Amino acid sequence: MNPLTLEIVNFRAIPFAHIDLTDVTIAAICGRNGAGKSSGFTMAPRFALFGDVIEGVSMDDLVRRGTQDMAVTFTFEHQGSTYRTIRTRSIKGNGKSTLEFQQQINDRWESKSAEKIKDTEAVIRSLLNLDDETFTASSMIMQGKANEFTAKSAGKRKEILQQILGLNVYDRLQDAARQKAAVLHLEIEKAKDKLAEIDERLKLKQSKEELLESLNQDADAMKSFIHVKDNELRQLEEKIHMLQAKVEKAFELSKQLNLISKEIAPFDIEKEGLVAKLGRAEKILSKETEILKNTDEYYRVKDQITVLEARRPEQERLIAELERIEVSTSKINNDIIPLDHRIRNLQQLLQSRELFMAKAEEYTAATLQLKHMEDLAEQWDATEKEMLDVRAQFNSEQARVNTLKSLLESEIRMLDAKTSMLEDSNCFDVTKAACLFLSDAQKAKQTLTRKNEELNSIDLSKLTTLNKSMNSMSEKQQEIGYDFAAHRSLKVRIEELRPLAEEASQIQAKEELLDSLQDQNKGLINQLDELAQKQLNVNSELNSLREALAPLPALRSSLDNLQAWANLKEQIGAAFEAKKNAVARIAAIDLELQTRALRIIAIEEERALLVVEAQCLDAALTEFPIIKRELQQLRDREHILTEQIGGLKNELAALAKDELLRQQLADELEPKSRKWSRYQTLIRAFGRDGIPALIIENAVPQLERIANEILSKMSKGKHFIRFETQRELKSRDGVQETLDIIIGDWTSERPYETFSGGEQLRIDYAIRFALAELLAQRAGSKVEWLTIDEGLGSQDAEHRGLVLESIKAVADRFKKVLVITHIEEAQAVFEQQIYFENTEAAVRVNVA
């Protein structure tokens, strides 16, 4: 994997940065502390590839403080193709993360993402064949974590080495073999259990055949018993049906008796009604003279009421007229009240006419003064903008000059350090290593003179010109005479005068409005006077009409009392007819009742005879369920026998299938057992003590050789490294797989932990460089990128130079080597330098 570009938005302290590493091979990363060097070159790529990778820090804490969204876009080349990952995090609401993984196909990006983030991360890990821990341990030396590999336990070291060598594929192969072996083992055990179960069932076959023959004989005998009992039940059922017919006939006769009784009841009721009707008719006929007299009085009173009722609409009309007059009066009064209020307000407003006119003149003068003030403000702003442009040019030129001075001074200090060695040197043979080193110091001395000349000849003329231009513009701005406070005060005064000036412009219109409102008020008062006179006239008419209608309630009460006599007059003729009809109908009803009494006697005699004949029905009904229950018991026993026979036949059929199945299982068991044995062999071969152990044994010497080459340079041949992959067990015979680190010097070998901090750091670097190269050489997942973060601080000047030489020595084994350091002497060693420069909106990244 070879990184190409990084684009960072609001990640940790970086607001925005675009880093192009396309042409970078080996470079120092420079910038002040806190500029975001470590975040940009170590944390950002890991976040883009693997997500939540910083222990103890949540993804929300990675979002730059004061913002809510962050994003990292990482583009890299891998196995001849170009890929990029785009990972975002938003802390809005409940928070949201996204991950997009793409491959460049010709000139377009094609998505390789899965539906879920964790599945997309699995796609990335599968492509790289790395997880975050292995990627970091082998290709990044983090700040303060150079011992990330050496400080881990022996078992963990071996796990990382296994991933670097791609041995995790054997874990997957072993898991696959175990799964298939487990499936076969389960099938074999199931087959054995099935065979035992079938054999147990086949032992019962002969006894079931004998039981089936016995049950068939019992079933034939049961059919004969059922036939006899069925005939007996049928005869009893016919007898019951005959007796039930007679009972039903007796019941029908009872219903006839009830029906006749019901027919007699209406006649009795009708007769009682006719007798009452006859009494009422005779009572009306006895008061005929009194009824006629009161009826004549009823019609006389009714005529008087009709005459008076004819005058009621006139009364209602006058009442309605009074209501309309009151409504009109109320409406006019309601209109007069707000009208009076508006007239008083206008009169009061017009009294301040002279004040409004004076304020209007003041407003006009202030407006003219404001226009002049705004012209001065435009001149001031234009000059201010020019000054800002010139100041920006001055700052840019100042930064360029300072950067150039800083670079030259850094190179001069490094060259001074090299040339200082010439004063104590007594070198005669330049072919020796030390003299070769002093030869480099001679070159540094020649370069030092040229660099000092470059430092003294830096052109500062542009800075002088820009400074003079700024001073000139400042004087020009002061000559304008613009006063911001007076400008703001004038605007406030104009806003205060604006409503008073508007009132002055409306004075004449309001005088005309006052005249119009006063005319309206006079008209409304005249309308009120006319309505008052009309109300007096209507009240006089209404009082006269009320006196004429005063007797009407008494006449209505008298009419109600006479209404009953008038109704009786209409019933006199009907009473004569009712009396005649009632006498005839009562005679007919008496004849009908006599006929129905004779019919009741005849029906009761017939019903009594049927009841005597049906007395033996209860005995037959009691015997019927007994016989039916006995027949059902016989049939139940027959059904049980049938079920038992059917069950035995099914069991015998199943046993026949079991015999066929047993033979099939026995035939399949032997090849499955042989296949299971082969999978057991594969499980052992794919295990840690099998093929992976052999690969590690072959890879460790290569790792040891590379690490010793690098460590020899950094320690001047003093130290060497040896790895032990097996350790004897203390509790029993045998060996244990491990990856112990043994360090040797000119005297003896001892554990890594017994060396000083500076020596440990050089050992850490040697092993980490060797791991990185081993990973770069591994087929299928080449990581051709090495990052070292602030790893030189604990070294003295001499060993720092050796470490830097070792870094440059391994650089040709990678496509990119990036060294993050704040030590200027170390920065100057590298021909390429990447500068981090902070601004408010972004981090400017310059590759030089």
Automatic annotation (TrEMBL):
SUPFAM superfamilies: P-loop containing nucleoside triphosphate hydrolases
Rad50/SbcC-type AAA domain segment(s): 6-247
Similarity annotation: Belongs to the SMC family. SbcC subfamily.
Any Pfam family hit: AAA_23
Keyword Coiled coil on entry: yes
Stretches of the chain forming a coiled coil according to its record: 174-253, 500-548
Subunit note: Heterodimer of SbcC and SbcD.
Protein name: Nuclease SbcCD subunit C
Protein's organism: Paenibacillus allorhizoplanae
InterPro entries (UniProt xref): P-loop_NTPase, Rad50/SbcC_AAA
Alphabetical UniProt keywords: Coiled coil
Source organism superkingdom: Bacteria
